[in-house]
Design brief:
The complex is a heterodimer of chains A (283) and B (252). Chain A has 283 residues and is of the alpha/beta class. Chain A is built from eleven helices and eleven strands. In chain A, helix 3 links the parallel strand 2 and strand 3. In chain A, helix 2 runs parallel beside helix 3 and helix 3 crosses helix 4. With 252 residues, chain B is α/β, with parallel strands linked by helices. A six-stranded mixed sheet of chain B has the order 1-5-10-11-12-13, sandwiched between helices. Chain B has a three-stranded antiparallel sheet with strand order 2-3-4, with no helix packed on it. A two-stranded antiparallel sheet of chain B has the order 6-7. Chain B is globular and about 55 Å long. In chain B, 51% of the residues are buried.
């Protein structure tokens, strides 16, 4: 069977400018940050990003890589407002498709199920309809005749997600309490790339967690990347919590300064080293 | 109370934050077996007080992915996708925050100013649109001001009564109350507009009017928010919030 293991650089080598890229995780939780950082080291730009937004959105927005963002929010969780997302919005740096959280989820479900849309009781009456004039409604064909929003499928060219464990075939496992929507992202994309804390033998997967922790199956995965601490500085429980001190630094440091110190290296290893050095300086 | 105290101290007066906890708790009275989703400290304390006293069947979360009892014992799994099912299934009563709210309960947490290029980008609409069309939504405003209570919100995130009616989505739409640091409001005013339901002791109608960007409906003599019982006060002070975090959210 196909060994799908690759490096972050190889993943980015399969992406190109103008693509629609979905990013898994939620807020500042289990974001595929190593893959996002690899994207930042590339020349790829003009992206449509689909995300329950966290620092993935902030980083890509600050670096000017986003043409259009599809999101219900962007937050750092313990810091409610994502500073670089805010700054980018306030200078109208990208187009926003602002959806409700449930609309977004049903858009993922629709895409994963190859449906053009799914109906949802959300959005009507709110300004989500005003700022997304392309959204359509449908009438229930049954006796209730209710009008519902037809959330269009959030189909994507590529999805990036981060999980705790994976094998080389692309089977991936979450060990934290919440799957977020990572399986849907993978199934909603033409190509899906899974980074993980640890690549293990297939037989190891069911030893480290119950069968229902096997969230992502290999048929929906194109590439697998082992990136220890690869969700940093977001959380990846139970492997590690969010690096709150570093997140504060990220939120408080001017972009150019942050980028020069932590993101200008040749690879993920340089980033991890820069973070370790910074932590040592704080002792 | 022990009877052996040689020098009993005078009972500490009920603080504004404690009235706010009581007012928030009351939102979940008679709700039955639904998820209480509080956002903010004071609503969290309110939900816990309600569960400890008059609404024991409420479900609570740990703020992550578990349903938990008052002592933290996990009793269920509630990751985000199941949480959204609970919203659309209606078995939930959320108390959200509001950066802006108008007389019909339209709420904004998305941005301030023009949406195309906001003066202040905030969180985004989050789940406010789906919440307001599917399960009861109350609001908590820790600092009542004309910046929050506005004539028109800049981006309708949570849907108010007038917009719900105009869009024909009233089937499961219900906004039970708005609690602020000044008082409690419901939507029993003309055309489902905001009405001053009670004042927290120490607050006057004039205080409310001076801090509100529209005129809320006022019918007759406005009652005061009810007093906590001695047992409730003890629970708030000794069990639910012994560190006094409530006084950081409500600084009066």
């Amino acid at each position: 069977m196909t060994d799908k293991s690759m490096t972050p650089e190889e993943v980015v080598g399969q992406l190109h400018s103008g693509m629609t890229v979905g990013i898994g995780g939620w807020g500042s939780r289990r974001k595929p940050m190593a893959l996002v950082r690899a994207l930042l080291r590339s020349e790829i730009t003009d992206l449509t990003v689909i995300s329950y937004g966290g620092p993935d959105v902030g980083l890509l927005a600050a670096a000017g890589r986003i043409r259009r963002l599809v999101a219900p929010f962007a937050t750092l969780d313990s810091i409610p407002l994502e500073p670089h997302f805010r700054a980018a919005r306030e200078r109208a740096a990208f187009t926003l498709t602002e959806l409700d959280e449930a609309m977004f989820m049903w858009g993922l479900h629709a895409a994963a199920n190859r449906l053009p849309f799914l109906p949802v009781r959300a959005g009507l009456g709110s300004d989500v309809m005003r700022v997304n004039p392309e959204l359509r409604t449908v009438l229930s064909p049954y006796d209730d005749g209710e009008e519902l929003v037809a959330v269009p499928a959030l189909r994507m060219d590529a999805a990036l997600v981060h999980l705790n464990r994976a094998d080389r075939l692309g089977n991936a496992q979450y060990l934290g309490p919440d799957p977020y929507f990572d399986d849907l992202f993978c199934e909603a994309a033409d190509a899906a790339y899974v980074s993980c804390e640890q690549l293990v033998e297939t037989a190891e997967l069911t030893k480290s967690g119950p069968p229902q922790s096997l969230l992502v199956s290999r048929h929906s995965v194109t590439g697998v990347v082992e990136t220890p601490n690869g969700a940093h500085f977001t959380s990846c429980v139970p492997d590690y919590d969010r690096d709150e001190a570093f997140q504060k630094l990220y939120a408080a440091t001017p972009w150019d300064e942050f980028s020069a110190r932590f993101l200008s290296g040749a690879g993920e290893h340089d980033y991890q080293l820069a973070v370790r050095t910074w932590h040592e300086e704080q002792q | 109370m022990t009877t052996t105290d040689a020098t009993p101290t005078a009972p500490r007066a009920v603080s504004r934050a404690e009235y706010c906890v009581i007012a928030c708790a009351e939102a979940w009275r008679d709700n039955g077996e639904v998820l209480a989703s509080p956002m903010g400290l004071v609503p969290s304390f309110g939900a816990r007080l309600a569960k400890r006293t008059f609404s024991p069947d409420l479900l609570l979360t740990d703020g992550e992915a578990m349903l938990v009892g008052l002592d933290g014992t996990a009793e269920g799994w509630l990751p985000y996708r199941r949480h959204l099912t609970m919203v659309t299934g209606g078995r939930r009563h959320v108390m959200m925050g509001a950066s802006q709210i108008d007389r019909f309960g339209n709420q904004n947490i998305s941005c301030i100013g023009d949406w195309e290029r906001p003066a202040r980008q905030l969180l985004g609409v989050r789940g406010a649109p789906v919440n307001t069309l599917n399960n009861p939504v109350s609001y908590w405003v820790p600092k009542h001001s004309k910046r929050v209570f506005v004539e028109r919100v800049d981006m309708v995130s949570g849907v108010g009564y007038d917009r719900a009616e105009a869009a024909g989505v009233t089937r499961f739409h219900r906004l039970p109350r708005v609690v602020s640091d000044l008082g409690v409001f419901d939507f029993a005013g003309p055309g489902h507009s905001m009405r001053l339901a009670s004042l927290h002791p120490g607050v006057t109608v004039e205080d409310v009017l001076a801090a509100t960007g529209f005129e809320p409906a006022i019918t007759g003599e406005v009652p005061y928010t009810r007093e906590p019982t001695a047992g409730e006060l003890r629970l708030i002070r000794e069990v639910i919030d012994p560190q006094g975090l409530r006084d950081r959210e409500v600084r009066v």
